[in-house]
Design goal:
This protein is of the alpha+beta class and 469 residues long. Among the domains are: 183 residues, Efflux pump adaptor protein, beta barrel domain (Elongation Factor Tu (Ef-tu), domain 3, Beta Barrel); 68 residues. 27% of the residues lie in helices and 31% in strands. A hairpin with a 5-residue loop joins strand 17 and strand 18. Helix 6 packs antiparallel against helix 7. The two termini are 81 Å apart. This is Peptidoglycan-binding protein.
Length: 469
């Protein structure tokens, strides 16, 4: 290349480089200028945006209202058992009859008892269980009468040991039925002891002696009072002797009859426990072999499993006895139950729809007004607990369905509902850039939503209701 051409090419490259640098500097200045703010612009950019209404769309859906509470799973109808007295003698000797009472076989915790079963043994004799409302309080035997005898006769008849009638009086038929019942359990009913038989013999001897004394007083062969008498004084003595002998015979016969009235097969006070219903479950045993059976010997429950729970008074106002209940354990086991008891609320709660008088206070947000109420205890019975029976003593969740909307309804969040001083419920809707109030009637509430019933077509699915600012 010629020198002249080289100088021209060099000038061209330098010019291009200068232009490129200027372009880069200019672009940097433009970018910096777009990112720079005046103090006024910077302050304005830090101001919060203008407040606007927080809205959510109206839903069209079915609602199912439930009350959910936590509770504890237990067996129902707990009852403590005590013995009404001593058991009978296991043998007929006087020494055994007066022996100390000792538990020889304790109740078995967790066992299931039906009517007629053996609860435990004391001194080798059984303590049996029967159904009846009257507690055992005495020894029942020949000559006894009353409601306790009547319920004993009914129980024996139910168990297949006829008593010859339910008379309320313990007679020979009842005694025979008692003997057969004991034998069916492998025991001997409480028969008269040797002491009883000895006393019977003594009373019978007393009657014979009295009869002989009367015959002697009357004379040989029962001669008349005047035979062989020598004077008035002797006749008076004979008359008094006869009268005394007749009195002694009368007393002897009376004592014998009274003893025989209670002589025979008996049910000792400590050998039967009456319970209101069966079957029962032995929940706890309070004695061991060798203990004296004084005081509580066991605690029993029904075979039903129950749940004790507590709900707020506002929730309790929507509950009714007999409602179906879903019971769920922590590990997912489920069973069906029935709401069997509802405690009395401490105060009248507001209804679920929020129709409560406000006493002239300004309108409040929310369907229920947020009032407080006293807790209310609930009891749920589970007739067929299934696998839940293994979790007695544990915590469970109870779910009670209290109503449904019978199909799809318009629903809004509870927070969208306002209540005026006059008790009228209303919602605010945003439409065409403005907010207006729509009066509604409230229905069922569930899952944070409440059914709304507007007049006419003032509210429809998809409308935006205001829930906050």
């Amino acid at each position: 290349m010629r020198p002249r051409e080289k100088r021209r090419s060099s000038r061209t490259r330098r010019l291009g480089l200068i232009v490129a640098v200027v372009a880069v500097v200019g672009a940097g200045g433009w970018f910096a200028g777009t990112r720079m703010q005046s103090p006024a612009d910077a302050a304005a950019s830090q101001q919060p945006p203008k407040a606007g209404a927080v809205t959510v769309p109206v839903e069209h859906r079915a609602l199912t209202a439930t009350v959910v509470a936590q509770g504890s799973l237990e067996y129902g109808s707990p009852r403590s058992l005590t013995l009404a007295g001593s058991v009978g003698a296991s043998q007929e000797s006087d020494e055994e009859a007066g022996a100390a009472q000792r538990v020889t076989k304790a109740p078995s915790a967790g066992s299931r008892l039906t009517e007629g079963d053996v609860l435990m043994q004391v001194n080798g004799r059984p303590v049996l269980v029967l159904r009846g409302p009257v507690p055992m309080y005495r020894t029942i035997g020949p000559g006894s009468s009353g409601d306790d005898v009547r319920q004993l006769q009914k129980a024996l008849n139910r168990l297949g040991f006829p008593t010859g009638g339910v008379t309320g009086t313990y007679g020979q038929g009842t005694a025979s039925a008692v003997g057969r019942w004991y034998r069916s359990k492998g025991y001997t009913a409480q028969e008269p002891t040797s002491a009883d038989r000895q006393q019977l013999g003594q009373l019978e001897t007393a009657v014979s002696d009295a009869q002989l004394a009367l015959l002697t007083a009357r004379g040989d062969g029962g001669k008349s009072e005047g035979d062989g008498e020598s004077g008035p004084e002797s006749k008076e003595v004979r008359r008094l002797q006869i009268k005394s002998a007749e009195k002694q015979l009368q007393l002897a016969n009376s004592a014998l009859a009274s003893f025989k009235a209670g002589y025979g097969t008996k049910v000792p006070a400590g050998e039967v426990v009456f319970l209101p219903d069966f079957p029962v479950r032995v929940d706890k045993t309070k004695v061991r072999a060798g203990d004296t059976p004084d005081g509580e010997v066991a605690a029993v429950t029904s075979s039903d499993v129950v749940v004790d729970a507590v709900v707020p008074g506002a929730d309790a106002s929507s509950l009714r006895e007999g409602m179906a209940v879903q019971v769920t354990t922590a590990d997912g086991k489920e069973a069906k139950g029935v709401l069997s008891e509802i405690g009395a609320p401490g105060s009248a709660p507001e209804d679920a729809a929020g129709h409560a008088e406000t006493g002239g206070e300004p309108e409040t947000t929310g369907a229920s007004g947020g009032g407080t109420s006293n807790p209310v205890p609930l009891k749920v019975t589970i007739p067929k607990p299934g696998p839940l029976a293994e979790d007695a003593g544990g915590a469970v969740t109870v779910t009670i369905e209290v109503g449904d909307s019978s199909g799809k309804v318009l629903a809004v969040p509870v927070a969208a509902v306002q209540t005026s001083a006059g008790g009228q419920a209303r919602v605010r809707i945003e439409r065409d850039g403005s907010v207006r109030r729509v009066e509604v009637d409230l229905g069922i509430s569930a899952d944070g939503l409440v059914e709304v019933k507007p007049d006419g077509g003032a509210l429809k699915k998809g409308d935006l209701v205001v829930v906050g600012q």
